[in-house]
Amino acid sequence: MIKDVAFVAIAVTDPEKARKFYQETLELKPGMTAMEGAWVEYEIGGTTLGVGCHPDWKPSRDGTTVAFETDDIDAAIAKLKERGVNLDLDKLETPVCWMAQFRDPDGNKLVVHQRKSA
């Protein structure tokens, strides 16, 4: 029935503030933009991340979490902190990865993640 993930969507309240965060803080490059800038898609690897604003769709501190893969988690965490991002969960090691959790300006949970080498 399910063959792939079409996109991951994140609800935001202020499209301009969200664009600044996703494009400047996280250095994502915008792709398609729709609804007069209220919806922006970012292509990351084989996944599309949609960030959008609509009156019937609200951000949630307990909603979807997106994990962004990085080659150097320590450098990524340092860069986030330099840009004023506070971590909810400091760097954590699991048997297969390292990760740290933070939030966007609307409180949506995000994770920076690095897989361990096989």
Walk me through this protein's architecture.
The chain is an alpha/beta fold. The chain has one domain: Roll (2,3-Dihydroxybiphenyl 1,2-Dioxygenase, domain 1), CATH 3.10.180.10. Helices cover 18% and strands 39% of the residues. It has two helices and eight strands; from the N terminus they run βαββββαβββ. The strands form two sheets. The protein has a four-stranded mixed β-sheet, with helices on one face. The longest helix is centred in the N-terminal third of the chain and has 11 residues. The radius of gyration is 14 Å and the shape is globular. The chain starts with 7 loop residues before the first strand and ends with a strand. The model has no long low-confidence stretch (mean pLDDT 90).
Characteristics:
4-stranded mixed β-sheet; alpha/beta; 118 residues; 2,3-Dihydroxybiphenyl 1,2-Dioxygenase, domain 1; 2 helices
CATH fold assignment: 2,3-Dihydroxybiphenyl 1,2-Dioxygenase, domain 1
| Termini separation | 30 Å
Overall mean pLDDT: 90
The radius of gyration is: 14 Å
Q: In the CATH hierarchy, what is the superfamily?
A: 2,3-Dihydroxybiphenyl 1,2-Dioxygenase, domain 1
Q: Largest sheet, described in full? A: 4 strands, mixed
What oligomeric arrangement do these chains adopt? Answer: single chain
Number of strands: 8
As a percent range, the share of helical residues equals 10-25%
The helix/strand series, from N terminus to C terminus, equals EHEEEEHEEE
Principal-axes shape call:
globular
Class computed from helices, strands and strand pairing: alpha/beta
Number of domains: 1
Kindly estimate the percentage of residues that lie in beta strands according to DSSP. Answer: 35-45%
Q: Which CATH-level-2 architecture?
A: Roll
